[in-house]
């Protein structure tokens, strides 16, 4: 029953957050710095109340241990969210995020000296081909956009290419983060709830560099039309409601993924996360009307299939050892 509740919480939180993020990206694509800042602030406040008890609970990991993790985590999150400001469609964004297994394997092999089975290399090859297929399909869609002039189309395409580069950089940063976190946990022990609080809290001052941009979008959000429930005007700007939904969803997503990791095996976690990505993909295509061609579906099948095969090889190796 507990595992079922964690699975439900993971799906609800992660899909809800992604839906709110896409809705914001459609309406205010330039507000990604405000979005990132808000999620960091929300998780920091939650940790301040529930984890650190207003800093009365001594931290198990020293601040110097958090610094490298904090820097990489902040950089990866900002770059990842900013990619949505460069015309990267959310379906492609979701599929690209599934490529983390590829960059994780590369990082672990060359930075940690780890070895992997042939099945894992084959799985990662499937994921890589799938991402390439989806990216080429999206590039074709971008070039064929007939609703804008040739000059605007060229500018749009160039910005899209920048967005793709940002996604690749974000993937590498995320995978390097996993290596840095692993080294931190080896040295100081695993304290995920504490780490979640301090990593987000220590990143907040860096947002001062984006202060003017964040402030401009705070003004824009405050002047957006008010949110209505069943025809009743709440008087609350609707963009703030969406932003709050994204923050709460992100917090629930992280919280329940941590719980899920402690209650079920790694294959089940991968299945749930893959299902979450697939459902988010369907919402993005059918609810938000994003273009998704047959070529996209083929690429997505390769990515999700490769992810499941990679996780399956992990489980079979553990069973053999037992």
From TrEMBL:
Keyword DNA repair among record annotations: no
Assigned keywords, A-Z: Membrane, Sugar transport, Transmembrane, Transmembrane helix, Transport
Compartmental location: Endomembrane system
Transmembrane segments: 32-51, 123-140, 160-179, 199-219, 239-260
Entry annotated with the keyword Coiled coil: no
Highest taxon listed in the record's lineage: Eukaryota
Coiled-coil residue spans: none
One Gene Ontology MF term: UDP-xylose transmembrane transporter activity
Coarse class of the protein's main subcellular location: membrane
UniProt-listed InterPro entries: EmrE-like, SCL35B1-4/HUT1
Membrane topology: Multi-pass membrane protein
CC per GO annotation: endoplasmic reticulum membrane; Golgi membrane
Pfam families associated with the record: UAA
PANTHER family for this protein: NUCLEOTIDE SUGAR TRANSPORTER SLC35B4, SOLUTE CARRIER FAMILY 35 MEMBER B
Family membership: Belongs to the nucleotide-sugar transporter family. SLC35B subfamily.
The protein's name in its UniProt record: UDP-xylose and UDP-N-acetylglucosamine transporter
Organism: Panagrolaimus superbus
Taxonomic lineage: Eukaryota, Metazoa, Ecdysozoa, Nematoda, Chromadorea
């Amino acid at each position: 029953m507990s595992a079922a509740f964690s699975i439900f919480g993971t799906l609800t939180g992660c899909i809800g957050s992604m839906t709110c993020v896409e809705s914001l990206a459609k309406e205010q694509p330039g507000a990604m710095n405000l979005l990132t800042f808000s999620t960091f602030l929300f998780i920091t406040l939650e940790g301040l109340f529930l984890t650190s008890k207003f800093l009365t609970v001594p931290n198990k990991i020293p601040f110097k241990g958090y610094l490298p993790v904090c820097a990489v985590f902040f950089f990866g999150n900002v770059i990842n969210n900013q990619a949505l400001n460069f015309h990267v469609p959310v379906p492609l964004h979701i599929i690209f995020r599934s490529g983390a297994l590829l960059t994780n394997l590369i990082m672990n092999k060359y930075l940690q000296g780890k070895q992997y089975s042939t099945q894992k290399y084959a799985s990662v090859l499937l994921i890589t081909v799938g991402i390439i297929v989806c990216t080429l399909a999206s590039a074709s869609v971008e070039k064929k956009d007939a609703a804008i002039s040739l000059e605007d189309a060229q500018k749009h395409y160039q910005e899209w290419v920048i967005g793709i580069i940002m996604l690749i950089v974000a993937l590498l940063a995320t995978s390097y983060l996993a290596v840095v976190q692993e080294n931190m946990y080896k040295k100081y022990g695993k304290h995920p709830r504490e780490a979640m609080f301090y990593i987000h809290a220590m990143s907040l001052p860096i947002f001062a560099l984006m202060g003017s941009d964040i402030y401009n979008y705070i003004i824009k959000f405050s002047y957006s039309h008010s949110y209505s429930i069943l025809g009743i005007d709440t008087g609350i700007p609707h963009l703030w409601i969406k932003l709050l939904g994204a923050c709460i969803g992100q917090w629930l997503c992280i919280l329940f993924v941590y719980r899920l990791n402690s209650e079920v095996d790694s294959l089940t976690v991968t299945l749930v996360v893959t299902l979450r990505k697939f459902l988010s993909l369907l919402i993005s295509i059918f609810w938000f009307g994003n273009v998704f061609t047959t070529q996209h579906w083929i690429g997505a099948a390769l990515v999700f299939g490769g992810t499941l095969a990679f996780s399956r090889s992990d489980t079979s190796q553990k069973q053999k050892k037992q």
